[in-house]
Amino acid sequence: MTVPGVVVHRDADVLAKAVAARLISRLVDRQSAAGSASLVLTGGTVGLATLAEVAATPARDAVDWRHLDIWWGDERFLDEGDAERNETGARAALLDHVDVDPERVHVMRGPDSGMSAEESAEAYARELRRAARPEDHGPVPAFDLLLLGMGPDGHVASLFPESPALYDERPVVAVHGSPKPPPTRISLTMPSIRAAREVWVVAAGEEKAKAARLALGGAGVMQIPAAGARGGRTLFLLDRAAAAKIPPELGPFAVA
Q1: Which of 11, 31, 60, 232 has the fewest beta carbons under 10 Å from its own?
Q2: Amino acid 185: pLDDT
Q3: Domain limits at 55?
């Protein structure tokens, strides 16, 4: 496993713009090399702001959106179209503004599908398994890029500290009793997150500073380095406020 990288930007607005530019560049590079790419989306304020910045820049047209597989790291177990769903936010911020292939947009189903949360998690695991190739050596694809937000308590996706879901070995899990509403969610598990070629943890604000320090120190949910089982890497993309409590010995940092 590789040591995580850290890039610090001035504030949340600059962070979102910089992550958007980095994301476009990464997808273009991967599509140039392989013909297609896979991206796992996250929700949250900075995550959606990043997608909106992608939509706003003319550089977005460099991405071949028809040859991009889009997944989610987690989802609130709510009906399709609910304003609180990560999918709803992602569509409004980006997906409704680019020419994606609907067959390659892989959503986590809500209760309006007739499934329970457990059935939705199992269905998503099956979809991931179908997409995995022999060279991925596992039940999920080796995602090219997986975006994560991070809560003040250190949670990523819908894996909260001390939650049984955090230790689940299945690819996808139903989460009940989330300390942050809504209480029921669907989430990739840590083994699925670690399967990605690159994991980007994007966080802004002083309320995230303690969580960032713990994660980079090898504590907390992320237990860094999180990615790298297949030669990948983990990158923390932070604003100055979120990076404020990281001691120098956990560097080096790139300050943009």
Answers
A1: 11
A2: 98
A3: 5-255
